Every structure is written in C-alpha cells, then in structure tokens.
Fold this protein.
Amino acid sequence: MTDKELHKLKRPELLDLLLYMRKELDELQEENESLKRQLENSEANREILEKIFQAVCPEESKKESDV
C-alpha cells in the first residue's frame, strides 16, 4: 500500500488495518517463541545423544574428536 492510498483511508479502515497488523505481529511472535523452544530442545537432545554415544562407543567418540 502506498502512502497516498494510506492517507485516503478513513479512521475505521485505519483501525482495522492496525488491528490486523497487531494480530499478525502477535502470531509471528508466538511462532518465533515456539521455534526458539524447538531449537533449544533439539540442541539439548543432540547433547544427550552425544553423551549416550560416548558412553556406548567410547572408541568411536575418540575417533570423532580426533577429526
């Protein structure tokens, strides 16, 4: 939407636009937080899997760390 089109809007239309934008912002912030939690969980899971791998295959984990 151009500035010219924006200036032509009436108050109720502007309020509707602001409401729509606020809802979209809230949804995106919620999605962002969810993705951050998923990333933290996947990093924690990776660390757990590495510890399990080191416990089960100590020789292989030494080879991996040498590379």
